[in-house]
Design brief:
about 725 residues, alpha/beta, 2-enoyl-CoA Hydratase, Chain A, domain 1, Rossmann fold, eight-stranded mixed beta sheet, six-stranded mixed beta sheet, about 50% helix
């Protein structure tokens, strides 16, 4: 017993419960820790010599939350709503026992306390938090398809009021120490070396071991739960906002709202029971499974470089060369300098290079205005970026990232010039979005050191980097590329070479399907709104405007040139050709595309679309438009998996969500196939093949997989 908690009692009768989960870098609320905590609480209660207890952590953080590796398989194991309810009720019961045992508990929060870790803190009678910028409190459960299931929806509203609590619960908002103190979430903040003593001092001062909500006559801060006019309005508006933001694809926010609303008009114990009921419904559902698996478990593994080849010494980039100072190159320069690297930003003329550096200046200026940075820090970062036109300045760079125009000849030319001055040990990476890496590496003297590093725009905001391996890319080049991605705090996926690789290839199917439907006479407003209802960030026509039809046109023409007569144009390409060649409506950057962009006003669909592509009298159901968009993307992912472009389903899911915004509720493209069922997926593709053409056709490989009932993710 107590393998996860160091239990000691000092001469003053103060017990210390030091949480220290063996073999883990952070404490998580796993079954073992919960069991030991329950046992330690009973020790405190039953020992007359113990006056009270302080809970602390032996690790750099407090508790990172529940162990999601135990919850993520709930759906696949057939966990019922009742079983999910009992799990929540069990943990909540441990915390409630501590809260009502008659002895005071204080907590020394030495760093991160999220989810169940924060709920443990809320159940303590006194909370002291370390005064450190990296320390955070939060309830992020709704972001992974759950709700706080150990009292978070009940204690936080009773502590700080309904409106403020909902802001934390529904947004997954993180509270820094000063904000937590101002809100009344913690009673004290203190330096790290004083945390335990401050907690002990409170315990020695004859504290009241009763939570405010257990005192007769307790009143909610700001009013009695949901019954005040102000709070009633909060729930009405909140429900509407949540429905609008989630399009009813995400049950967790509504579940959390319901738990707060229903629970906070009842006594605490009844409220906790209501919370557990809603938790049971969510944890046993497929959306929570999808989101936990992709957004937390698999993303966490990717961030820890699960795909890194073994046996390669860890590397660190100190000097980086970026070829091309356009939007992508400028963004790469910024995130790299932010990570502490010296960056040589090279362009064909010094004005272009300086503009690339100015991009960082603009971002830093905004950060200073918002209080996220200082002028001193900004100046230090800008000092790391050296704009130039001289290839000789690239000498000493350990990594080169090429971000010039999507033209094979131009890329070959800059590769040759760069390799003439960089050391032989340097890695060369192309930021191409479509051109095969193996072909680009032909221009290199060292193809084994040549890889693809595909960033997404805007680089400073988008979390994903797609690493593409060429036929000759060495394990060392792959490992060092992954080390760099980790160094700039991005999430990597590793894919094999092909035209468009994985993300660009699959992303383009959505925009292509949108343009195809437009040409068929589907109302463009229906296309755009159906995409949003599915959970996509924006509609396919708006996306095409953002990336520019001009770029899509150039990429297609380059691919057609490369592949010759064997190349098959996408069904939506005639639309692109018309808009670029005939109408000169090339996208947002050019001021016009599928949308009009009036200066200082909201964009709107170009009225000329109605004349160009008349809307048919009979329009498809909304769900049919949604299915065409989602199934087309998922099917192309399946093809990438079959062809070996993708080797791991997790990379497919992470890449689709964080790369181009596939709906997170699905868990990603291959999780989507598993969610609807592989046999149903194939049947629907067969139906759409007959209705819309061979782009929906499934291979024999997939059909055989469906006959076996073989999902992509194994439990």
């Amino acid at each position: 017993m107590n393998n996860t908690i160091q239990y000691t009692v000092d001469s003053d009768g103060i017990a210390t419960l030091m949480l220290d989960l063996p073999g883990k870098s952070m404490n998580v609320l796993c079954d073992a820790l919960i069991s030991d905590l329950a046992a330690c609480i009973e020790k405190v209660v039953n020992d007359d010599a113990v006056k009270g207890a302080v809970i602390a952590s032996a690790k750099p953080a407090f508790v990172a939350g529940a162990d999601l590796t135990e919850l993520v398989t709930a759906y696949d194991r057939g966990v019922t709503i009742q079983q999910g309810y009992e799990w929540s009720k069990g943990l909540s019961g441990v915390f409630r026992r501590m809260e009502t045992c008659g002895k005071p508990f204080a907590v020394a929060i030495n760093g991160l306390a999220l989810g169940g870790g924060f709920e443990l803190c809320l159940a303590c009678h006194y909370r002291v938090m370390v005064d450190h910028p990296k320390a955070q409190l939060g309830l992020p459960e709704v972001t992974i398809g759950l709700l706080p299931g150990a009292g978070g929806t009940q204690r936080l509203p009773r502590l700080i009021g309904t409106e403020k609590a909902l802001g934390v619960i529904l947004q997954g908002k993180k509270l820094r120490p000063k904000e937590a103190l101002e809100l009344g979430v913690v009673q004290e903040i203190a330096p790290a070396d004083e945390l335990l003593e401050r907690a002990r001092a409170w315990l020695l001062d004859e504290p009241n071991p009763v939570a405010p909500w257990d005192v007769k006559g307790f009143r909610f801060p700001g009013g009695a739960g949901a019954m005040t006019p102000k709070n009633a309005q909060t729930f009405m508006v909140g429900t509407s906002l949540v429905a609008g933001m989630t399009q009813h694809n995400y049950p967790a926010p509504i579940g959390a709202l319901s738990a707060v609303y229903e629970g906070c008009i009842t006594p605490m114990d009844t409220g906790l029971d209501i919370e557990s009921q809603y938790f049971g419904e969510l944890v046993s559902g497929v959306v929570a499974r999808n989101m936990m698996r992709s957004l937390f478990v698999n993303k966490g593994a990717a961030d820890k470089l699960v795909r890194r080849p073994e046996g390669i010494e860890k590397s660190k980039v100190t000097r980086l060369g970026v070829l091309g100072a356009g939007m992508m190159g400028a963004g790469i320069a910024y995130v790299s300098a932010r990570a502490g690297m010296q960056v040589v930003l090279l362009d064909t003329d010094i004005e272009g290079a300086e503009r690339g550096k100015a991009y960082s200046e603009g971002l830093l200026s905004k950060a200073i205005k918002r209080g996220y940075s200082t002028q001193e820090k900004a100046d230090a970062l800008l000092g790391l970026i050296h704009p130039t036109t001289d290839y000789a300045d690239l000498e000493g760079c350990e990594l080169i990232i090429e971000a010039v125009f999507e033209n094979r000849e131009i890329k070959a030319a800059v590769t040759a010039k760069t390799e003439a001055v960089i050391p032989e040990s340097a890695i060369f990476a192309s930021n191409t979005s479509t051109l095969p890496i193996t072909g680009l590496a032909e221009a290199s003297k060292r193809p084994e050191s040549f890889i693809g590093l595909h960033f997404f725009s805007p680089v400073d905001k988008m979390p994903l980097v797609e690493l593409i391996t060429g036929e000759k890319s060495s394990d060392e080049a792959i490992a060092r590329g992954l080390d760099y991605i980790q160094q700039i705090r991005k999430t990597p996926i590793v894919v094999n070479d092909s035209p468009g690789f994985y993300t660009s290839r699959c992303f383009s199917t959505s925009t292509n399907e949108g343009m195809t439907m437009l040409a068929e006479g589907v109302n463009p407003a229906l296309i755009e709104n159906a995409a949003k209802l599915a959970g996509l960030p924006v509609g396919p026509l708006a996306v095409m405007d953002e990336v520019t039809l001009d770029l899509g046109y150039k990429i297609t023409m380059q691919n057609a040139k490369d592949q010759g007569e064997s190349y098959v144009f996408d069904s939506g390409f005639p639309v692109i050709r018309k808009f670029v060649e005939e109408l000169d409506r090339k996208g947002k950057r050019f001021g016009k595309g599928f949308y009009e962009y009036p200066e200082g006003e909201k964009k709107y669909l170009w009225p000329g679309l109605a004349e160009l592509y008349p809307v048919t009298e009979e329009q498809p159901p909304v769900q049919e438009v949604i299915d065409r968009l989602l199934y087309r993307q998922a099917l192309e992912t399946v093809r990438c998996f079959e062809e070996g472009v993708l080797e791991h389903p997790a990379d497919a899911d992470i890449g689709s969500i964080f790369g181009w915004g596939f709906p997170p509720w699905t868990g990603g493209t291959l999780s989507f196939v598993d969610t609807v069922g592989i046999q149903h997926f194939v049947a629907e593709c067969d139906r759409m093949t007959e209705a819309y053409g061979p782009r929906f056709a499934v291979s024999d490989w997939l059909r055989e997989r469906a006959e076996r009932g073989e999902s992509f993710h194994q439990v």
